[in-house]
Amino acid sequence: MWHKEVFFCQSQLIGKGFIVIFGKHMQTNMDITVINVYLACNFRDKKTLWGELSIIKTTHQNFLWCFIGDFNAVRRTNERKGTSARGSQTREICQFNNFIKGNFLLDIAIVGRKYTWFKANRSAKSRLDRVLVSKDWIQNWPMCK
Question: Is residue 83 part of a domain?
Fold first, then answer.
């Protein structure tokens, strides 16, 4: 992204918990958007941010999309170890999956560790960091991981 011969930044948008970069991939002449996400821990703020990100994606449909960062949410209960599942976590998992599905995003497999966050004493761990991309992103870069 930082090499002008690879990526040209057309505009940016900074919001609470995210930074959006709209630009052009110079080698393919494709319009792409990269959103760096850092979500709060509370469910209400997560739902608000997922809604804002959905609106941004809907208003720029002709772009290839990459959402990357700390979503502070898991997609399945087995992505969290060492903490007890509560009803609110189940609701959060459902809402997060609805955000992904509703925006036609794919969850890119991570390489290496299964978990991306560890409690200091290693008694708990979760997969909170992830990369979500649009289907057309995968069509252009099928080997991304």
Answer: yes
pLDDT in tens, 5-20: 889 999 999 999 999 9
Rg of the chain, C-alpha, whole Å: 16
Closest C-alpha to 18, from 35, 41, 43, 40: 35
Report strand pairing: 129-134 vs 105-107.
antiparallel
Rounded-to-integer distance, Cα 18 and Cα 38, Å: 6
Residue written as token pair 């940016």: 12
> Tokens for 124?
């708990």
What is the tally of structural domains in the chain? 1
Q: Tens digit of pLDDT for each residue in 91-126? A: 888 999 999 999 999 999 888 777 777 777 777 877
> Per the domain annotation, does 145 fall within a domain?
no
